Amino acid sequence: MRLAELLAEILNGLQYGLLLFLISSGLTLIFGVMRVINLAHGSLFMIGAYVAYVIAGATGSLWLALPAALLGGALFGAVLERGLFRRFREREHLDQVLLTFALILLFEEARAALLDNQFHSVAVPAALDFSVPVVGDFAYSAYRIAVLGICLFVAALMFMFVERTRLGSAIRAAAENPEMVDLLGIDARRLHTLVFAGGTALAMLAGALAAPLQSVYPGMGDGYLIISFVVVVIGGLGSIAGAFWAALLIGLIDTLGKAYVPQAAGSAVYLLMACVLLWRPSGLFARA
Amino acid sequence: MRSSSWRGNLLLTLAALAIACMPFYASPYHMQLASTAMIAAMFALSLQLLLGGAGMVSLAQAAFFGIGAYSVHFLGRLPGGAPSILLSLPAASLLAGTAALLIGPFALRTRGFFFLMTTLAFGQMLFFVFHDTPLGGGADGVFIQRPALTAFGFGFELTRANRPAVFVLVNLAVLTAMYALLWRLMRTLFGHALLGIRANEHRMSAMGHDVLRLKLAAFVLSGALAGVAGHMAALTDAFVNPELLDWHRSAEALLIVLLGGIGALHGPILGAFAFTLIGELGQSITERQRLVEGLVVLGAVLLLRHGLAGLRWRRAVPT
Amino acid sequence: MLHVSRRRLLGGAAALALGRPAFAQGAPLKVGLMLPFSGTYAALGENVAAAFELYLQERGGRLGGRTVTLVRLDDESDPAKAPQNVNRLLERDQVEVLVGTVHSGVVMALVQAARERNVLLIIPNAGNDAATRELCAPSIFRTSFTNWQPAYGMGKVLAAKGVKKAVWVTWDYAAGKESGEGFGDGLRAGGGELTQVLTLPFPETNFQPILAQLPGLGVEAVGSFFAGGSAVQFVKDYAASGLKEKLPLCGSGFLTEGVLKAQGAAAEGLQTALHYGDGLDNPKNIVFRAAFQQKTGRAADVYAVHGYDACQLLAIGLDASKGDARAIKPMAAAMEAAKIDSPRGAFSLSPSHNPVQTIYLREARGGENRVIGIAAEALADPGTGCKMG
């Protein structure tokens, strides 16, 4: 096991994990606060990536695409919540599962109709299009390091928001006990719209960040969807801290596993989930 | 869930007879279509036990279906060639049921959303096992070479001409048996207990029922039945591939149950035929399959609260 | 009208036709084009179909004395739906010849149908070895390649340059593994050695774990097989990791086929091996490219060549059997003996019905895969395990 290799794999794992965190944090909040299941969350990731592709392609700059994905995501999420998910809050799980499953299909069709079904690559911003020598022969892409940094920054912002602000504590309260929210005098509906918008924005930001790393293509969100569910299960419903550590853990296990034990790597993450379910079914960081 | 009344049973019997006579009047293509619909019905019935029975929404069902299908492939590679269907069918359901037994204890430590997510995750894990390892012959799938249908030592050489007809009858037989089994099961204490769990789990627990064991039993049985459906699919299509285990197929199964009506045991059968028919019609109208499917799902969720089975009964029947 | 949509066909055949249409001289011959017209491979499917139609048009829409109607079916590159799709073509639409497809999982359903029902199948792309090896059949032909062929050419080139040790990077699926074998065989033929095959699960694009391992493996070159968008990602990632200068990357031509623009500078100088390339100046190619450009507004690529040659091959067969698509023996005999005048250069078929063709060495320069040499001359796939009576 060479040092250069190991270092590179760890960096990869962290970067993947942090991207995963962006996606799962929204998911865990949406579950926790709204008790709504959204299978289309992976599609939001894809939409963010395609937004990056379109905007970066049109303007030549990814830096414009990122805030566009973030703000556009917030808007899109708010619209989705007000228009669709609000009506389905009371429905059974089955209805929600199928509704969001239908959304996946319709989003894919919309993408096919508006754009196409091809792979498209998105250029790394020129300013970051170089490699930073790490150890020995191996150089690490500067853009990937930037993604690492951006994700950490967003994570830090989220922590501060949730722990230090009033709105943040309202969200935490709602995640622990949805019924309490009304009693505390907080407008539950506004809160839901906010949470959903936030979750959507984060997922789309993640997609936009990931676009130069893995190209945009149909169904690119599928893998992230499942894994982010695993993150939520392991981290605990409604817990941002849980999502953070679970995402990092999974990112590292998955990446190191694929590098050193490829055949088993696919299942490693699920075995971890099985262990957590045995030991702490409500998640490692669930607030009791 | 309610089981069909004598009128419903009569209709079902007539439909079964109509299908049984297909070799006399239907084209090979339509017989194949009927087989596809019946296998979808078996798959949905297995899920109905969980969903309409115990109220558990699972996304792992396709994984058990796929395991049942792949078991046909595995058995065919044993020395001695493909075994009698009297052996392969129980073997498939056993294999699938065992997988459910291994996953169940973990998944059942969760409820509601978590249960959904864990079944989704475990189902995908099984998908990856078949997709990424040499176990399943790889990502492209494998053919069942020269499938023969043997029972009681009689080998039924399947030619291109008689295959569709033979399989229509065999699938009809299996579907009927499965329906009858579930019909009987829902009338037993076990069946009633499941319905009780769906209605109010806490109350059942307070009444002293071992809810966990009951749910596990339902999970395993439903997995085994899904394996039977998968087994029939493998025999009928003579082809298996990892996508059979993908969670999207589980979601489709949920849709079929919803489409037909959770409240009725025969709902899945209605839903399966409707789904297959819609798929066929959609295929001839447009190439945008996903759009059709998405709209169908939306329509079913928004409009058909009680599914197609619920449409029949104009009187308000509380479910 | 050469082109009949399924819609019209269904409308016309509303009364469920039960019997098989009696073959009558002059009755239109239905050819089923089962290709991906949606999804990731849509562009390939469209090019194959367009080029197939192009040759048909050159023959005035008639082959073997019969008018040919094409029935298009979108297989969505979905193996799970493949058996049903094949049934649709054969039973519902009553096609007499099958042409398809791109995805190797889907083509297996076509192969099975061709073997079981003795229907003529011409494969215009899918390269899985099995179709012309252990699953070969008198009625199955291919006008494209086996995964083994181009990679063998690449391995041979490397060995000739003096490379002793190389690795192969690809997805863990049939196409990746089979091309890896070809690469290894080519290397070995020249005295080199394929030390390892590094794979990642299909269709992942997270190449980082593998890229990080490469420097430490003690090899002199890296061969690879990826296609489409992932080829873009891989080549770009490879360059970004700083390996391109120290550890040359090469591979099967699909690595740079149709994706050079997207790959940009990262692909410059990359050498690949394929049975087609830019700058081939044989007269047939020049005419073909012009005609294809005029018909579709796009430049022809290797997939178009496959489709064009598929129709040429079908024409040879049908001419020999005077339009009877069920007369496999005379058709096969003619097709086996044929020499196809292809834009890639003339080729004939091996005993297992796969092209015996020249594999060119190409270098990516300025957005083109320029042919700079020959990797392997008249290369035939070994056809191991093919038993045809």
Explain this structure:
Chain A has 288 residues and is mainly α. Chain A has a domain at 18-116 and 124-220. Chain A contains eleven helices and two strands, in the order ααααββααααααα. In chain A, β1 (131-135) and β2 form a beta hairpin. In chain A, α2 (41-59) crosses α8 (188-214). Chain A is globular. Chain A starts with a helix and ends in a 9-residue tail after the last helix. By secondary structure, chain B is mostly helical. In chain B, 71% of the residues lie in helices and 3% in strands. Chain B is built from 14 helices and four strands. In chain B, the strands form two sheets. Chain B has a two-stranded antiparallel ribbon. In chain B, α3 crosses α12 (267-285) and α12 packs antiparallel against α13. The longest helix of chain B has 27 residues, at 28-54. Chain B starts with 5 loop residues before the first helix and ends in a 7-residue tail after the last helix. With 389 residues, chain C is an alpha/beta fold. Chain C folds into two domains: 3-145 and 281-349, Rossmann fold (3-Layer(aba) Sandwich); 148-274 and 360-379, Rossmann fold. Chain C is built from twelve helices and 16 strands. Chain C has helices at 6-12, 42-58, 82-92, 104-117, 148-160, 174-189, 208-213, 229-240, 260-263, 283-296, 302-321, 328-337; strands at 3-4, 29-35, 62-63, 66-74, 97-99, 120-123, 140-142, 165-171, 193-200, 221-225, 249-252, 271-274, 339-340, 347-349, 355-365, 368-379. In chain C, strands 8, 9, 10, 11, 12, 13, 14, 15 and 16 form a nine-stranded mixed beta sheet that branches. Residues 1-22 of chain C have low confidence and may be disordered.
Quick description:
The complex is a heterotrimer of chains A (288), B (319) and C (389). By secondary structure, chain B is mainly alpha-helical. Helices cover 71% and strands 3% of the residues of chain B.
Structural class of chain C: alpha/beta
CATH architecture of the largest domain in chain C: 3-Layer(aba) Sandwich
CATH superfamily of the largest domain in chain C: Response regulator
Counting DSSP H or I runs of 4 or more residues, the number of helices of chain A is 11
Q: Which structural class should the secondary elements of chain A be placed in?
A: mainly alpha
Terminus-to-terminus distance of chain A: 41 Å
Q: What's the average pLDDT of chain C? A: 86
Biggest interface between protein chains, with counts per chain? Answer: A-B, 36 and 39 residues
Ends distance of chain C: 39 Å
Q: State the CATH class of the largest domain in chain C.
A: Alpha Beta
Q: What assembly state would you assign to the polypeptide chains in this entry?
A: heterotrimer
Proportion of β residues of chain C?
Answer: 15-25%
Largest sheet of chain C: 9 strands, mixed
Radius of gyration of chain C over alpha carbons?
A: 21 Å
Mean pLDDT of chain A: 84
Radius of gyration of chain A: 19 Å
